[in-house]
Amino acid sequence: MAVKEDRELISSAKDIINQLSIILRTANIHSPSNIAVTTAIEKYIALLNPLIKSEQSILLELIGEFFYINSMRIRYSLDYLINFNFLVREFKKREIGSVIFKDFMNPRDLQTFLKAFIESGFSDTPYDTMSEGIDALSSIKIDRLKKIKEGEDVDTNTRKIIKKTYFTAVAYIEGLFSKIEAGERVNIKKSKRIVEAMVDRLLDEEQLLIGMTAIKDYDEYTYYHMVNVSILSIALGQRLGLNKKLLAVLGITAIFHDIGKIGTPYEILNKPSSLTDDEWKIMKRHPIGGVRAILKLRGFDSTAIRSAIVSFEHHIHNDFSGYPSVSNYMDLDLYSKIVCIADQYDAMTSSRVYSRIPIPPDKAISIMMERSGTQLDPVLLKFFINMIGVFPIGTLVMLDTKELGLVFESNEVMGDRPKVVIVIDSNGNRLKGPVVSLAQKDETGRYLRTIVKTLDPNKYNINLAEYLL
Amino acid sequence: MELTEDKDIKVVKELLQKLIKAKKTLRMYPQGNPIYVKTLEDLYTRFKSFFDYQDELTLKIGQNTIVYDSEQIYYNPEKEDNMALFLFKDGIKEITFKKELLQEELEEFLKVIVVDFDREKDKMSEDDMVTLLWEKDFQNIQYVVDETFLMDEIDEDYERKAVTSVKGRGTDVESLQRAYADGLEGMVKDEKKVSIMPPAFEEIQMLGSEMEKDSSDKMEKLITILFEVFSHAEGKDDLEDSIMFLKDIIRFSLTHGDIHTVINALGKVKSILDDSFTTDEAKKYMKMLFVYIGTEEIINLLGALLDSSSGVDEDILKRFTDFLDKDAIAPLVKILGDLKTIRARKSIIETLITIGGKDMQKLAAQLNDSRWYVVRNIVFILRRIGDKRAVDYLLKTMSHRDIRVRKEVIRTLGEMNGQGALQSLSECLDDSNVEIRIASARAIGNIGTDAAKKILIEKVSQKQFKDRDFNEKKEVYEILSRWKDADVLDYLAGILKKKSFFGMGRNYEDMACAAFCLGLVGNKEVLPLLYKFSDVNNKLLREVSQIAIKRLELGR
Ligand SMILES: [Fe+2]
Ligand SMILES: [Fe+2]
What is the rounded distance in angstroms from the CA atom of residue B45 to the CA atom of residue B103? Predict the structure, then answer.
């Protein structure tokens, strides 16, 4: 029956990726002839061959952050996360975009594939090494990772869609909060749809949407902050393997995390100087105010409950050093820990939330690293930094080529080699582009450009929107 | 197989009709029901045979129409039962089913569209149809949603305005050059060689167990938070809010059959009240919760829960009712008469036995309930409580219009005795109803005092007693025989010895009763007297005497 076969394919598909990852990790430690490796290979063949028989061939593709098998996106859960992530990185490192298995596999072919894969890891031109290594095989073929040509912008249409999603969300949230402030009843169903759209965009174009959060100079930043924290939280949740439904709930809780600030005087929220003790006292009430606002607004449906929890906990901190103080308390909610990280990052890098002087994104990351294990959950923070990069989008960087650039897109495999938009060339001329990848090398295998130092874009009034939007 | 255009349209039309029918059918039958299964399989077969020669099926949705391949295949101008409108309302403009459609997917799709979003209950749901479809994340069902539904709420021009405004602040060349100059200064490679470490395996495992834990119910956490919020309260409004939320949670949880949550919350309330650091003001508010759970609103919910198929475990119920105070008595009595299952009524009776003792007056006041069966239950409860102060109230209920209540009262008075009970019971011995007479005789026997004995002997001696039915007489004599003392012995023996001036028939009955009871009293001294009657002509007296003799001889 077709139904049954399809279901089998789905469950084997996960294993195809998982097992490949396991073989590669095993082969990294042991020699290819080691029993651990040969057993793993045999297992893998036993998995592949029946599928090749029914499907003719197995095409394993890496598109964005996801694997596809025969054009079907493979969703993974946390059990698979570490192996999936490993494989994504190893593929990206070698610029492998796809592997196709056809005909019946035999152990010898797979051994050859493994050998080439491992060797290419040490090569300066990994894809070519890999390609040469398996050239003789007819049963396994690879293809290069499809990517946007260097120096060229991403598909403008995609950018348009991302921007539309982003601004629709902000516009909607602004409207929603004005209504709430005016004491009107609001319809939560629509905010769910807004968040769902963001989740969809994050699944396709994570870095682009994260990039949208880098611009902090908007008027009415409060609403942008809500959307940004939501985007960063969903993105982090996605890295943890949360399913779509959970991501949407997480996104909603994140959007409402500061709802308790409704009613806080505008002068305090937007005060250009530091807050007095009394003003801080008022400010610190917002987590509790949020619990009350959410419950009054939405009752006790499960999303409302989670929102109330996140509102209450997002400033408590992992070590309970924050506020409000609590007496009989259990652990913090996972969502609260996620939102706390996203909130800190967005708040620190913008000028109007808490810190009156914005901190450059790379500096914010360093500060957050210092808080690992105290204020912030260390594991979640690792995932977050992996996602955002040590040189997050919007970081102003000086390159060894005497070019000045802004980080445009982070590089997950090589954190210190993101994509950068050049704003001043080596002759000191002002530019707007091109976008270059710092992972690019010349013929001798040397990197074309390397970051030598970072600068504070706020110090120079650099308007990120001009370059990133 | 090539099909003509027309045939194709016809096939899709029929398929759509099947789909609409399935939407109705699946709503009526539970999953796994044969009709449910068959409907689903039939529909799936239709899809499959369509996909034999087509790769996908795209339906374009209008307000009143559904179009396939530029042909209108559905039209309905009505508001009710309009498939097009149903989809259109939530912004769905197009649905595509792909060749690879799985039966599971079709079933999940149907599960979403059978939800009646107009029904009050479903209106409360936080999800609309698009959200439900979205959460299913179908591989082979795609849909196009028009998000213009948002446009009535937001400024269409928002993006342009925001971008123009934010870009408008343009970077000035001078600052940029300054940045460049600062950048060039000291172009030594930063020591900041940062490597991003991916999380270690153990860390991911830890995260995994945390995520598992995270999927648990969050209500308890919310309650913890509300108590924290309460402790941070800065004024009357804050305190009132917290209490209101906790009340809401209690009501919400009970409505959803979750009594555990309520018990946990109340446990916390109790420990706050017991805490010597709690201020009097805070205590005042916390106590409101205990009052709240005893209100009709909550007790009614409890009743519904008890009556439900899942019921409530005895121990669990006890833990809940232990928090109730006397104010709950009236609402409990009220639902006692409304409950449908015996199990539920029993539970409430047990509860009232516990709580009723806290305020006898409140419970006794319920004896005025208009429902006789409720009154009878309360009498039973009073008896089980066993507090003599209830006698006064019971005596007033003696004259209840329903005999079943009166019997219960009489029995209760017998077990409790108490001031005035005996007097009242003895009056009942002359009641026109035989059941009442017997019940009160038993009750008097139960009291068992000398005074009680005296009353019974007196009653049995009266002329009008002789005229009672034999069975009644036998019953009363038997009760009398519980006193195994000289008074009773002499009295019974006296009956056997006495010459009768009355009709002989009735006399034999009395004598037989006396003989039988002598056997019960168990004193062998009366054997010679009984022997005299062991061969009399009257069959009843003879046989009864023989039984009594045997009993005494065997010493049973
Ligand atoms: Fe906050
Ligand atoms: Fe915030």
Answer: 9
